[in-house]
Specification:
single chain, alpha+beta, five-stranded mixed β-sheet, 4 helices, 5 strands, globular, binds tetrahydrodeoxyuridine
Length: about 140
């Protein structure tokens, strides 16, 4: 924890996110997303988007990964890698996390949590959570 990720680690997470994307269930939007969440312990949790005929019941790839990890007892996270694109095509541009997923990151992650958004393992951006969700709402406001 605390160290910035090495380039090889970033590439490995992107490869795993591309693998997770192959499991996407997106028969309505035909937009397939894969994510891999790296815990503070160094374990990885893949997720894909899972849609529903009742469209609002869809869950994003990022939140699928968080739910899996939290259910396993994880509470600290270093990074997430995200890839997305049209079904049947390789990703063509960066898939930035939606607002709800950024809020879930805020719940469990610190300001330096690294959000990796990638086209492939050689074409990616890394943004700290503090840039992706400035002035976010957190549980520290609640009693
Ligand atoms: N989606 C994600 O999985 N992650 C995001 O951050 C953005 C959107 C999914 C939800 C839906 O299944 C599809 O992409 C189109 O919105």
């Amino acid at each position: 924890m605390g160290e910035r990720l090495q380039t090889e680690d970033v590439k490995d997470l992107i490869r795993k996110a591309l693998g997770a994307r192959t499991k996407a269930y997106a028969p309505y939007s035909h937009y397939q997303v894969g994510a891999v969440l790296l815990s503070g312990q160094g374990r990885v949790y893949p997720g894909c988007n899972v849609e529903n005929a009742s469209y609002g019941a869809a869950i994003c790839a990022e939140r699928t990964a968080f739910v899996r990890a939290v259910q396993e007892g994880e509470r600290e996270f270093q990074a997430i890698a995200i890839v997305g694109g049209i079904e049947g095509e390789d990703p063509k541009d960066y898939a930035y996390p939606c607002g709800i997923c950024r809020q879930v990151m805020q719940e469990f992650c610190g300001p330096d949590f690294e959000v990796i958004t990638a086209v492939n393992e050689d074409d990616y951006e890394i943004h700290p959570l503090k840039d992706m969700l400035p002035w976010g709402f957190g549980g520290d406001k609640l009693k």
